Amino acid sequence: MIISSFIFYAWGEPVWVILLLSCAIVGYYFGILINKNKDHVRRKKWILTIGITINLSVLVFFKYIDFLIQNFNLLLHADLPYSGIGLPIGISFFTFQVISYLVDVYRGDVPTSTSKVNVLLYISLFPQLIAGPIVRYTDIQHEMQNRSFSLSNFSQGINRFVIGLGKKVILANTAGETAALFLDGNVSEVSVLGAWFGISLFAIQIYFDFSGYSDMAIGLGKMFGFTYPENFNYPYVSKSATEFWRRWNMSLGGFFRDYVYIPLGGNKKFPIRNLFIVWFLTGLWHGASWNFIIWGLYFGTLIFIEKKFLLSIFNRLPVWFSHLYLTVAMLIGWVFFYFTDMKQGLLFIKSLFGLNSNAFVDVILNVHFNNNLIFFIAAVIATTPIPKWIFNKLIRVLPEKLQTRVSNDIAVPIFNFFILIISTTLLVGSTYNPFLYFRF
Q1: Of the listed 40, 286, 323, 368, which one is catalytic?
Q2: Preceding amide of 133 cis, omega within 30
Q3: 375-415 pLDDT, tens per residue?
Q4: Cβ of 301: how many Cβ atoms within 10 Å?
Q5: Catalytic (active site) residue 286
């Protein structure tokens, strides 16, 4: 598995294999040092701090150095040259996994691994190496030492992988192509409904793009005997920003909760400060650009307002009102996320509310809405648990003794076979279209 993981990583960027290996070595030896000094509180804390600092320094250097230079030049009217260093793929994920391992060892939540192989395997496992989910050592500790293979697990893994592939190729890529027609042009001239349609398509694209990769990672893990945590739970059915972030990229949310928010004091000490630090970092983690930071703080502000009074108001209103609020808030949030040029983002927000003297509806919207109406409705339904609910209802019509057999041996394989055929056909005729979260 380790050799396969390194070949997989080296396939795209062989030079950064050394970086991946170095981070794993740091994780291993600092874990050993923390354990050796477990009875010396101050020394143990210093070792942990140095280990985290090394990993964060790697992340800052490769991901944020040019962003820091850009802002330094702007603030001080300086002219420092940019580094021009490329971003090693998956760096945001594997550095966080090293940090989570060191903190868990420090806390005593997991035993220190005395096996270099296990730590290296944990950091480099290829299914989730480049785009998550962020896996903790405790999630796969047992399976690294007692992994078992079965035809049933392998079959489940293939099914999950194919579903993820279909999400990416059939839904995300299709939505992204049409969304670009509304988001990448002159955004001040896009019609009001065209702006809402375009950003809705981007919401569909990013959900199926990221959850599709997570499905593929979970499926690959299952095929090789690993059980990864779920990363999405129908986030678009949420009734608040708070609930949305309990369902979206759950591994990242759990990381910031357990390794940043709670250590800072959680709800007990400076909760408002802690909240905004977490959401500043959540935004920054997504990219070295101010639009991501604003996007993170935007959700932090929403969650703060919800905690203060909004949720109590929503509890007295019909449920559909909460869903509508979250949908509008979430779509506006995706505008901040999409546009790295904030001027373009603000122009697009003005178009959403007709503040650019733009038309309410135009010919471009009519054409693309009519051409994509069936896809749009199907994609929106697919973001909800409705397809799964319908499938289970249909299966339960059958006699009980046939339900599992028909589901596992007939319905799911046939469904996935068609997804695989359609996805392969689309991939053959399309250009390179990487996962959005590869850039993070």
Answers
A1: 286
A2: yes
A3: 999 999 999 999 999 988 888 888 888 888 888 888 888 89
A4: 14
A5: yes
